[in-house]
Amino acid sequence: MKEIIVFIEHRFSEILSNSYDALGFAYEWQKLYGGEISCLVLTSEGKKDIFNNLKDTVNKIYLLKNNLLENYHPELYLKALKDFLKEKNNYLFIFGQTGNTYELAPSLAVELSVPILTDINGIEKDNNQINFIRYFYGGKVSGKINIADFDKKPLILTIQTGSFKFEKKEINSEIMEKEISLDIEKNIEILEYKKEETGEVDITKADIVIGIGRGLRDKKNLPMVEELAKKLKGVLAGSRPAIDAGWLSKDRQIGSSGKTVKPKLYLALGISGAFQHIVGMKNSDLIIAINKDPNAPIFSVSHYGIVEDLIKVVPAFLKKL
Amino acid sequence: MKIIVCIKSCPETAESDIKLTPDKKDIIREKLVYTINEADNYALETALVFKEKYGGEITLITFGDKKSDEILRMGFAKGADYGIRIEEEKEIKDPLLIAQILASVIKNLSFDLILTGVTSSDNNYGITNIALARYLNLPFTTLVKKVEKEDNFLLIERELEGGLIEKRKIKLPSLLTIQTGIYPLRYASILAIKRATSKEIKLIKLSELNWEMKENISLKEYFIPKSERETVFIKGSEDEITDNLIKILKEKGIL
Ligand SMILES: Cc1cc2nc3c(=O)[nH]c(=O)nc-3n(C[C@H](O)[C@H](O)[C@H](O)COP(=O)(O)OP(=O)(O)OC[C@H]3O[C@@H](n4cnc5c(N)ncnc54)[C@H](O)[C@@H]3O)c2cc1C
Ligand SMILES: Nc1ncnc2c1ncn2[C@@H]1O[C@H](COP(=O)(O)O)[C@@H](O)[C@H]1O
């Protein structure tokens, strides 16, 4: 049977919520295939209390300590994970997908010669196989993926943000604390972290948010949506391409690498609804989407949908406001 | 500086009607338009900016079928110097294998920097790039939103969750995965596009690589995801739609 090991990522002394997605997946796996769940925390002696929240939710907690592990460093983390896992022969190693696991998960897979899948959002048993489910094509299509000899060989997974629920369980956790050595030559030096500045408007505080996406097409269509925002007493925000194109400032980006909003109304205009966007707005009280593609994934989280050209509907709507 | 950029030709799907083939193992591709993967376009842009600042040459590499010649040509038109296409005789789903294929060609080239996109818009893996770095034993950095060169290292800003930025230094040679929006994109002139059509693309056959290839992952089937909500679609004429919208907003106390 596989040992299920969940990687616990922390930053500024807090566990990232993505690690709970990974734990949620681990429970789901356990329901189907059994096995014991462990958590792995890389940390410094001074910050080891981080793991307190996990006590009594899993069978085992591995606490690998070194003062160099106080904060994330790709090469040191990779070395620690590799040394830890190479001793084991059958495991499932699970990360919550984050910016850092874009570095760690694939590099670890190569170092250990283990298959890897990213952004998993479902699993199902299928005779002797297991189907790992994830999005392709920006969420328009889902795929069921099979892994050769999945039961006999180790596997590395990352879990799509928000796709599995973590519910605290009462289990006596065994704690394995160990000081590790990390003797490597570093090519990377982490200098500092910088919080992105918020401009005049804080979109997370607004009751009404109008989100614009690539479907707005052109800067020249901005006045139209600005007027809409004004009339609805809301603020303009956008998907990543709307920010990349320079239509809006970075502090107005909604999604995994931007902000999370929960307004009374989220109006999505020309946004396809990739999961990186959806995680940032799906808990809004009321979601209305206008998109000319009836199969756009944004509709799957919307209360109301309008399948139309926004360049036509918005001006018509403005006239009646 | 010698820069290699890994680019991939992907179908535009966000705005297209996507249907599955009868065996559900693929999407119907006939009517789809192929372009350079969005993030790879930004990787190419970064290479072009570096070339302008520090001189040097840019080599584009892709593992793809004949259609991919188009994105190499577009790259030439923007200012890339060389193009290599490894012939994709059959679609490979395992990103580790794609990375090994790219590595087996790149290891014979001389370079200071490899640039890639953060993820591909078709597979959305975010694996191929970092796996490639490890097969070539290079240091790596993902999600790059700003980069500057100083002597033999790069100063980088990378983008984490919630807009948090991490600043780091990385030695050259190394591999970076470029996030969209790093620089505004340039467009190639018609004249440059014309000129690029006669430029040579080096073609490599998979069979020439001569090593055993094994895929550990396979696609069982695709399906169209189910809606999480019972979405109510507002239909009718423009007039009816906007009237209905206003009615709903009034009911919900928003207007
Ligand atoms: C690490 C990482 C982090 C990311 N972080 C974020 C993030 O924080 N936020 C984010 O949003 N994305 C993020 N992304 C990008 C995300 O994957 C998608 O690429 C992005 O959300 C797509 O934006 P879009 O919907 O505006 O564009 P597209 O996907 O191109 O969709 C455009 C939509 O507009 C519709 N449309 C076009 N014309 C019209 C018209 N005239 N009328 C009506 N509809 C029209 C189309 O049908 C289509 O659905 C991230 C990606 C990665 C890899
Ligand atoms: N077939 C390919 N040819 C060249 N580069 C690729 C290919 N597939 C992926 N890449 C590179 O790896 C990055 C990540 O791809 P993926 O792992 O599929 O998300 C892309 O942005 C490209 O830079």
How does this structure look, described?
The complex is a heterodimer of chains A (321) and B (255). Chain A has 321 residues and is an alpha/beta fold. Chain A has helices spanning 17-33, 74-85, 101-112, 222-231, 240-244, 275-278, 310-320, and strands spanning 3-8, 10-11, 14-15, 37-43, 60-65, 91-96, 116-126, 129-136, 141-147, 155-159, 174-179, 188-194, 208-212, 235-238, 265-269, 286-290, 304-306. In chain A, the strands form 3 sheets. In chain A, strands 9-8-7-10-6-1-4-5-11 form a 9-stranded mixed beta sheet, with helices on both faces. In chain A, strands 14-13-15-16-17 form a 5-stranded parallel beta sheet. Chain A has a two-stranded antiparallel sheet with strand order 2-3. Chain A starts with a strand and ends with a helix. The relative contact order of chain A is 0.12. With 255 residues, chain B is α/β, with parallel strands linked by helices. Helix content of chain B is 28%, strand content 29%. Chain B is built from 7 helices and 13 strands. In chain B, the strands form 2 sheets. Chain B has a 9-stranded mixed beta sheet, with helices on both faces. In chain B, strands 2-3 form a two-stranded antiparallel sheet. Chain B starts with a strand and ends with a helix. Classes of the chains: A alpha/beta (321), B alpha/beta (255). At the A-B interface, helix 3, strand 7, strand 8, strand 9 and strand 12 of A face helix 3, helix 4, strand 7, strand 8 and strand 9 of B. Flavin-adenine dinucleotide sits between chains A (138, 213-215, 239-241, 253-258, 270-272, 274, 276-277, 280, 290-293, 296, 309-311) and B (14-15, 118-119).
Brief overview, please?
Chain A is built from seven helices and 17 strands. Chain A is of the alpha/beta class.
Question: How are the SSEs placed, and which strands pair?
Answer:
The complex is a heterodimer of chains A (321) and B (255).
Chain A lengths: L2 E6 L1 E2 L2 E2 L1 H17 L3 E7 L16 E6 L8 H12 L5 E6 L4 H12 L3 E11 L2 E8 L4 E7 L7 E5 L14 E6 L8 E7 L13 E5 L9 H10 L3 E4 L1 H5 L20 E5 L5 H4 L7 E5 L13 E3 L3 H11 L1
Parallel strand pairs in A: 1-4, 1-6, 4-5, 5-11, 6-10, 7-10, 13-14, 13-15, 15-16, 16-17
Antiparallel strand pairs in A: 2-3, 7-8, 8-9
Helix pairs in contact in A: 2-3
Chain B lengths: L1 E5 L2 E3 L22 E3 L1 H17 L2 E8 L4 H10 L3 E6 L7 H12 L6 E5 L10 H8 L4 E11 L2 E7 L5 E7 L2 E5 L11 H7 L5 E4 H4 L7 E7 L8 E2 L4 H14 L4
Helix pairs in contact in B: 2-5, 3-4
Bound molecules: flavin-adenine dinucleotide and adenosine monophosphate.
